[in-house]
Design brief:
Order of helices and strands: EEEHHEHEHEHHH
CATH architecture: 2-Layer Sandwich
Number of helices: 7
Helix content: 25-40%
CATH class: Alpha Beta
Radius of gyration: 16 Å
Structural class: alpha/beta
Shape: globular
CATH topology: Nucleotidyltransferase, domain 5
Oligomer: single chain
Strand order of the largest sheet: 4-3-2-1-5-6
Length: 198
């Protein structure tokens, strides 16, 4: 996990000459501790301004008891242990920080529909206001721009020449999603987010 004050790495993108300075957004990744919608246990963010990652944040949270027990397959995929989450902050506290990072920027996620649904349900259970963010999906954009057989995040990143990353680690996934969006924009010749497919 990283803190807002941690050193920032610029998201690597394939060599290109397109001007990506018009891209301001927050890449978001949500991890869950079982297969129930809303059982959020980690959120990762990569804040992009002017086409470069300028800030990153990732943190764990303790899912509400309404979401049931942890699924050990999810936990293993996320490389987490129960002790990591039982002593973590509540979702409500985490989401307050997440909302501050996002502000009024558009939000990008890989399989944005799923991440949006998880956050909305977690907000409902925590009795906090659900976000009214402008969502964009790199999975959908990749299907349109690249036409790959698989639109999984690692496959899209590899097709764009991006470095390998630790899948299902919220911070790494968010950073990879930011790089993927910028790489797709370069391939498509887009100069702002609104020019990409939705």
């Amino acid at each position: 996990m990283t803190s807002p004050s941690a050193a920032v790495r610029t998201a690597p993108v394939p060599h290109q000459r397109r001007d990506l300075s018009g891209f301001d957004f927050v890449a978001v990744d949500v991890e869950t501790w079982n297969n129930r919608e809303g059982s959020v246990c980690a959120v990762g963010l990569a804040v992009v301004r002017g086409g470069a990652v300028v800030d990153e944040y990732s943190a764990l949270c303790r899912p509400d008891g309404a979401f049931g027990e942890a699924d050990y397959r999810h936990m293993a995929a996320n490389k987490l242990q129960l002790g990591d989450l039982y002593h973590a902050q509540s979702f409500a506290d985490l989401f307050e920080t997440v909302s501050a990072f996002v502000g009024d920027l558009p939000v990008v996620a890989h399989d944005a529909e799923a991440d949006a649904a998880h956050l909305a349900r977690a907000c409902e259970v925590a009795e906090v206001a659900a976000p009214s963010w402008e969502w964009h999906c790199t999975e959908t954009i990749a299907r349109e721009v690249l036409g790959l057989h698989s639109s999984a995040l690692p496959d899209v990143a590899a097709a764009l020449g991006l470095p390998r990353f630790t899948l299902h680690e919220a911070g790494a996934d968010a950073r990879a999603t930011a790089g993927v969006l910028l790489g797709l924009a370069a391939r498509a010749g887009a100069v702002r987010l609104g020019h990409l497919p939705r």
